[in-house]
Every structure is written in structure tokens, then in C-alpha cells.
Amino acid sequence: MDARDQTRSAAIEIDDLHVELGGIEILSGVNARIGRGEITALIGPNGAGKTTLLLAMLGMIPYRGRIVIARDNGLLRVSYLPQRFEFDRGLPVRVMDFLCLSQQRLPLFVVSRKQKRAKALAALGEVEAEHLRSRRLGALSGGELQRVMLASALLEDPTVLLLDEPASAVDRTGEELFMGLVRRLHQERRLTVVMVSHDLSMVTRLASQVICLNRRVLSAGKTAEVLNKSSLSSCFGEDKGLLLHDHPWDAELSCAREPEDGAGPGRSGED
Amino acid sequence: MELIFRLIDVVLPFSFAEPLFMKRALLAVLLVAPLCAAMGVMVVNFRMAFFSDAISHSAFTGVALGILFGVDPRITLIVFGVLIGLGIISVRLRSSLSVDTVIGVFFSFAVALGIVIISARKSLTTDLHSYLYGDVLTVSDPELLGMAILFMACAAFLLFFFNQLFLIGINEQQATAQGIKVRALEYAYALLLALVVTVSIRVIGLLLITAMLVVPAAAGRNLAGSVRAMFWWAIAAGLGSGVIGLVATFYWDSATGATIILIACLAFLASQAYASLKK
To answer: Domain A1-77+158-271 carries which CATH code?
Structure first.
């Protein structure tokens, strides 16, 4: 197997996955293969089971079937950015506190270790958020919180990054900034990224692979192959043709393409 | 103990610290006040005040059961309180009901059982007063030893798990995603909290013990700008109101638990004023 084939191997393999919550089958016989070092978008209508699939990958909900996440150099580290990070905004927790809490065993009321603070600061630097280090977590805007959460995820040195609706809590500028960060981190850290998104503009520009989900996998493949009107109609329903015409990404959809930055499988041949 | 009592004579050469019962009371306050404040930080973060109330009110039934069956009520109140605490967590994790509903059911069960026992045996009523209001002035050496052991157990627990507990308090789902054993820690914390509540009832009384957990931590939260500051301000507020309250009791001849809580509430009001000014 040459280097390119190796990097094209699956980071996550899902076989005949069934998830039932509260007596309702959310996912039914899902089979999917998520390429190593690729950005894969999970798209589908509301209630399609996209977040459920991410939670199953994290082992946070019970499921039947098989999910295998490949080790990367013997390491298996999956980080997760939730769609909504709800917390008590009145808590006196600074951004650095928050990042150090997950980094050190010694309680924060005793000491905040210099080495851990330096690592946290470096992670904030990676997401262009060093200036937020002394801010209270509850005082952050949606976009700022998202970047701090991304820094928190990076502290775990992930091999796989799961993003749930990263565009949902930010404005257009924040979305652009976040997309740029994900693209850069994906390249620099050779991350496998799985991203749930309703924003097809983001999917088109960021993802190299798309899985269209509605309780089961309706279509999967390269972004340009999956993001076409017939495939989207089968995923979202025929009437969603309206959706295509009403949104600014319509034009981009018609020319769905591979990411220009080479973030697709081709570049990871050097891995 | 003699050595500690002599040390108190040297450090505190005041009339209130002379009687032996005051020395014991002071030691009890020095153990229980920071313990409650430290555990209270998580009670505030986890919004567990109602949980603590359910445990403390179950003590009422624990004492009644002890007297009824001829077992030391100081033991039965702890055992019954711990069982109620673990019961609440266990049902909460297995049920789709909201946490306050689950606690409400356990709270009602514990109090109803206590009232049934006490109303059937009227002679029990007089024995309950010291548990309702606390009676730190009659605390014994073995009880002090028990408080010291619990203090060390909680200190060790917080030393190892404070950060993880705080992350659970911020967002449970994210803590789970980060690989924190949320359930095991919740059980361990609930067990220790039940022990802290039931042991501290001797000092503060079952009616007000939740305040000893919540009020210093709330004051700490008002004053603090960071996790570390919140913890130490809570300890300072708990310890300060504990010692001042105990000394005031000596001169006012008032109930110690209530006096301590009154001072703590004043500290909270001051912290609230500071927080409002800061805004």
C-alpha cells in the first residue's frame, strides 16, 4: 500500500449502525466510511440523526452495530465541539481557567501550572484568540466561545475532530473566520474532521467528502458528486427546491467543487 | 486532644475560648465551616441546594428511626441521609424526570416517614430539638474525630477531582465527551455531600445546614473573578462567619448554627453589594 492509499484508509468505519432513543429509531442501518485526513460533512434535514451519529461516534449514547475509529500512530483522540455549549454564564470562570481545568489534575484552587498555562495559551494562539485569555467565559460572544471551544478541543491533541453545526451560533464574519481556522488546523495537524452542517456554502468550501443522512445514508461521496439537485432532493425532499433558490449559496451549489486549498484526499498523500 | 486544647489557650487567650466545650465547639467549627464552604462551591455550580435540603431533612427521620430502634441516632441519621442521597442520584440517572421532581419525591418520603414515626411516638419530639437547631456546644471528642476524618476525605477527593467536577458543573455533556467519568464522580460527590450534610447537622442544625453550603459559596461567587478566587472566598466566608458566629453565641447566648448562618448571610449581602457596584 503506497502512502496515498494509506492516507485514504478509513479513519472511522460505521457498519449497520442502529440508534434508538425513547422508542424511536433515530438511525437505521447506517453504513459509512470516513476517510483519514479528510473533512467530511454530514448533511441532512432536521431530525435526520446527524448529531446522534456524532454522539454515537463519541460513545455517548447506546447503539447497535459497529463503529471503529482507527488509531493514528497508536493514538485515538476524538475531540468534539457541540452545536450549543450551554453553561451558567454567571460562573466566575476565565478562559484560561476553563482551558486549564481539563489539562491538569492538581486543583485550580491550589495552582495553575505554568506548563499547562503555556499550552493553553498556545492553543488560544492557534485559534487567534490569545486576547481572550483573561475574559470570563460567560462574557464571550458566540464566535469567541466557539474559538475557545476549538482551542479546548485542540488541547486534547485530537486525531479526529467532530464539529456539530459550527456555523449555527455565529454571524457571517465569524463563520468565515472559523472556516479558515478549521481549514488551517486540518492542514497543519492532519486532522480528520467530521462536520455536521446545514450551511451548504460552508460544506462546499470546506468538505472534501459529504454524507447525506436521513436516518440512513442516502448518498455519500465527493462533495461535487453528492451536492447536486437530485441528490439533495432525495435527502431533503423534493419541495426543498425552494431552499436552493432562496439562499445565497445556490450559486455555489451549482458549481460545487473540491476545496481549492488542496484539503482533500490528494494532499494527504504526504502523511 | 490535650495538646490541641493547650494550643488554643495560647493562640486565643480570651474568655470565650476558656471553657472546654467552647474549645471543642471551635474545633468543630474550624472543621465543618471550610468543609461545607468547599463542598458548597460545587453545590452552587451543580444547583444542588435542593438535594442538600432533602438530605438534611431526612436526618429528622434518621434520628427518629435511631431512637425507635434503640440505635445511636447520630449514626442512623448519617446512614439514612446517605441512603437518601444515593437513592436520589440513582433514580435521577435512570429516569427521564427532572432532578427537582426526583428530589421532591425523596424529600417528601423522608419527611413523611419521620412525621409518621414521631406522631406515633410523641415522646420522641423532645429529642429532636438539638438536631433541628444544632448543638455544637455538646460535641464530643469522637464526633470531632469523625469530622476530622471526613475533612481529610473531602480534601483528598477535591484535590484529585475538583477540576473534573468543575468541568461537569460547567457542561456535563462536554465533560463526558472529554472522557470524564461523570456518573462515578456524581455518585462519589453525592455520597460525600450526604456525609458532610449529616455530620454537620450537629453544628448547624438540619434546618439551616444547606445555608452553610450555599451562602459562603454564593458570597465567594459574587466576589470572585476566577475559579481559584471563588473557592478561597467561599472558604474565607464560611470560616469567618463560623468563628465570628461561635464567638457571638458565647456572648449573646443564642443558637450557634443560626448565629453562624446570620453572619454568613450578612457576608453574602456585602458581597452582593460589591458585585452590584462592580457592574
So the answer is: 3.40.50.300
Residue in B closest to A21 by C-alpha: B96
Is A92 in contact with B171 (Cβ distance < 8 A)? no
The residue ranges of every structural domain in chain A are: 1-77+158-271, 89-157
Sheet with A64-69: list strands edge to edge: A24-35, A10-21, A64-69
Q: What tens-digit pLDDT sequence spans chain A (271 residues)?
A: 444 444 457 889 999 999 998 888 999 999 999 988 899 999 988 888 999 999 999 989 999 999 999 887 767 789 999 888 889 998 999 999 999 998 888 899 988 888 889 999 999 999 989 999 999 999 998 889 989 999 999 998 898 999 998 877 777 788 888 888 999 989 888 889 999 988 888 888 889 999 999 999 988 888 888 887 777 777 777 655 434 444 444 434 433 333 434 333 333 333 2
The alpha-carbon gap from A86 to the nearest alpha carbon of chain B, in Å, equals: 7
Between chains, do B170 and A93 touch, taking CB under 8 Å as contact? yes
Q: Which residue out of B159, B160, B163 would a mutagenesis test of the A interface target, given it has the greatest number of A Cβ atoms within 10 Å?
A: B163
Structure confidence by residue, pLDDT tens digits, B8-49: 888 888 888 888 899 999 999 999 999 999 999 999 988 889
Q: What is this model's ipTM?
A: 0.84
A87 close contact with B: CB closer than 8 A:
yes
Min Cα–Cα distance to chain A from B36, Å? 16
Q: Are A101 and B163 inside 8 Å of each other by CB?
A: yes
List all residues of chain A from 104 to 123 with a beta carbon under 8 Å from chain B: 104-110, 112
